[in-house]
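Sample pair:
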Amino acid sequence: MVELRTPGEIDAMRAAGEVVARVLAATRSAAAPGVRLRDLDEVARQVLADALADSPFLNYQPHRSMPPYPGVICTSVNDVALHGIPTGRRLADGDLLSIDAGATLDGWVGDAAISLTVGAGRPEDEALVATTQRALTAGIAAAVPGGRLGDVSAAIAAVGRAAGVGIDTTHGGHGVGRRMHEEPSVPNEGRPGRGLRLRPGLVIAIEPWFMAGGDDTSWTDDDGWSIRTADGNRAAHVEHTVAVTDDGPQVLTVLSRAATSPSPGRS
């Protein structure tokens, strides 16, 4: 069942979303050659603890056949597109890293992801990240009252297909609220004018992930979580939690002005 949120509930979700934004900012800053993926997970755990928030990722087990997820963030490197486990692997110069983070605060969830190049990034990786970010921007712009869910999916795919990247629709965006994954599903490709009508109060995670080689297929690693590109090419993944409102789409997983403003006496 698709649930619509009140303005007050959206504000509460915005607070959870800001915690997610803090996690992503901190882990982005910490990501450097030689840093272990589990070190980034520790950074994220500290941000969550400081905010008195929990992780919806930790011990998440959507199916009995899958092991409980062991981290509070997903760290996907190079050909790992999604759900990479934060292990002892050390980042190397030139790696393409995606970080997916969530936070539960006062019973409400926020979910977002970023992709970045580590150290001296390759131009083709930076172009892939930029394409994926453009698709996210296009998807958010389509999340307006009176539109259809297919408008969001089609906007994402239009950017990706124009760039010649691979789009696997097995995993995509989703509703967000009291739980990390709620209805509706938000595929990364679809037909405009089709699907659920977008109404004020709908909150969804919009999350394009693209594969550089143009192949639309992926596979799940033996760890039960890491989703890898079928052809071994690199992938990028970005995401925001977005509320459909009468004033247009509102991104909930961003830092507030207070969090981004310099402290008194500092420039």
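Residues 7-252 form a domain with the Creatine Amidinohydrolase fold (CATH 3.90.230.10).
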